[in-house]
């Protein structure tokens, strides 16, 4: 069985504090895992993305609130709790890459203005070799 591992990066962009967790992970191929994204503002919506090991950015799921399931991925956003999660079932090496949660919010100074903020990145499951995957913080 292959072993997968990763690290998490959270940062503040455009006044939106975002924290993604866990700070590090290690799991076996086939395991289930949940990534979390917490933010300081109520979102209009949350998008989850994956930058795969080939460098391609892939949109995984759009979830303004509630839960959406797409195959092995299940995303949940609870605007009142200012959090979102992405659950990966039966992890595979093809899940390797960097995961991002992007929060769309209204700017409080200009209610008509809307911005999409890239909130953080979770480098996860990046293969180091065909047998073991690891991730380093940028």
TrEMBL record:
GO cellular component: T cell receptor complex
PROSITE patterns: IG_LIKE
InterPro entries the record matches: Ig-like_dom, Ig-like_dom_sf, Ig-like_fold, Ig_sub, Ig_V-set, TCR_alpha_variable
Coiled coil (residue ranges): none
Species this protein is from: Moschus moschiferus
Domain Ig-like per the UniProt entry, residue ranges: 16-117
Protein name: Ig-like domain-containing protein
Tagged with keyword Cell membrane: yes
Organismal lineage: Eukaryota, Metazoa, Chordata, Craniata, Vertebrata
Subunit annotation: Alpha-beta TR is a heterodimer composed of an alpha and beta chain; disulfide-linked. The alpha-beta TR is associated with the transmembrane signaling CD3 coreceptor proteins to form the TR-CD3 (TcR or TCR). The assembly of alpha-beta TR heterodimers with CD3 occurs in the endoplasmic reticulum where a single alpha-beta TR heterodimer associates with one CD3D-CD3E heterodimer, one CD3G-CD3E heterodimer and one CD247 homodimer forming a stable octameric structure. CD3D-CD3E and CD3G-CD3E heterodimers preferentially associate with TR alpha and TR beta chains, respectively.
SUPFAM superfamilies cross-referenced by the UniProt entry: Immunoglobulin (SSF48726)
Xref: Pfam families: V-set
Keywords: Adaptive immunity, Cell membrane, Disulfide bond, Glycoprotein, Immunity, Membrane, Signal, T cell receptor
Compartment(s): Cell membrane
């Amino acid at each position: 069985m292959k072993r997968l591992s990763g690290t998490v990066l959270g940062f503040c962009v455009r006044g939106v504090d975002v924290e993604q967790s866990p700070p590090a992970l290690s799991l076996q191929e086939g395991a289930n895992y949940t990534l979390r994204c917490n933010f300081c503002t109520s979102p209009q919506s949350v998008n989850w993305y994956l930058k795969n090991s080939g460098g391609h950015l892939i949109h995984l799921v759009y979830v303004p609130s509630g839960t959406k399931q797409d195959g092995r991925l299940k995303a949940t956003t609870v605007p009142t709790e200012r959090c979102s999660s992405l659950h990966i079932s039966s992890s595979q090496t093809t899940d390797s890459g960097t995961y991002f949660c992007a929060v769309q919010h209204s700017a409080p100074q200009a209610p008509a203005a809307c911005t999409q903020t890239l909130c953080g990145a979770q480098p996860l499951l990046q293969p180091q070799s065909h047998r073991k995957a690891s991730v380093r913080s940028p």
